[in-house]
Amino acid sequence: MKAKAKIGIIGGTGVYDPKMFKLKETLKLSTPYGAPSDDIQIGDMGGVRIAFMQRHGPGHIYPPHKVNYRANIWAMKQLGVERIISPCAVGSLQEEFEPGQIAIVDQFIDFTKSRSYTFYDGPKTVHVSAADPICAELRGLFIKEAKRNKIPFHEEGTYVCIEGPRFSTRAESQMFRAFADVIGMTLCPEAQLARELEICYISLGMITDYDVWAEHPVDVDTILRTMAENVDKIQRLIMSTLSKIPEVRKKCDCSDTLKAAGA
Which are the contacts of 3, defined by CB distance < 8 A and separation ≥ 6? Predict the structure, then answer.
């Protein structure tokens, strides 16, 4: 199948803006792992062909622990996607990671419990390295554009992924602070599944709140309000960076992860 798009965006409605995205076609796909979260929209964003999918489905019907991550990533691969950009909401575990900023993370810690984590369930066992789970080339490009556009951001950080849909207890939040910078519910297994299919992956975390280690407990209204006030930063960053992404992948090892795993 000829590639429909080489760049995919898995995100929420905040990133999808008809003024930015010129829709060409909508595709309903099936995969060996069931249906993806939503139909995939193919269109142009800033002159670049994009495959866009809403991670949580139309109307946010799938909570983070019920998202069919394997079907979503497999569907992107079916369309010829080689790079995935993943905007998401995250909470802050550190004072300097302030609400309204963007975290371009480079590491994750997986505290999820019940998700389907791999495409390799047997009979062949494949151990894909996750030492550096985020694409180095994409990180470099987004960091450069964030600086150029004077968007407040952090160019590295560790994302701890929890199961959800509940938020952390104060004790959990204090524990996570010792090891991570931001907290969310969707990076895992999305990032590692992309790596198993040799797709470059980057997470752009919009920091919406301080997690419950801080004085005031996190609440949904605060998250939604902060997202609405700052979603333009994510939009500007993506639009600015898309045209800078080279056609051929040469500066990362993402396309060779299976070779290194002996697959």
Answer: 79, 80, 81
Which contacts qualify for 193-196: CB closer than 8 Å, 24 or more apart? Answer: 193/69, 193/70, 193/73, 193/117, 193/118, 193/119, 194/73, 194/76, 194/84, 195/128, 195/130, 195/133, 195/254, 195/257, 196/118, 196/119, 196/120, 196/126, 196/128, 196/257, 196/258
What per-residue confidence (pLDDT) applies to 19?
Answer: 77
CATH number at residue 169: 3.40.50.1580
Catalytically annotated residue among 38, 39, 106, 211: 211
- Between CA 155 and CA 106 the distance in angstroms is 8
Residue 13: predicted pLDDT? 54
Task: Assess whether 181 carries a catalytic annotation.
Answer: no
- Rounded Cα distance between 187 and 47, Å, is 28
Q: Is the pTM of this model over 0.85?
A: yes
Q: Express each pLDDT in 99-157 by its tens digit.
A: 999 999 999 999 999 999 999 998 888 999 999 999 999 999 999 999 999 999 999 99
Catalytic residue among 121, 209, 253, 256: 209
174 in a structural domain: yes
Q: Is residue 235 part of a domain?
A: yes
End-to-end CA distance of the chain: 23
| Structural domain containing residue 135 | 7-260
| Contact by Cβ (8 Å): 65, 164 | yes
Residue 1 lies in a domain: no
Is 17 one of the catalytic residues? no
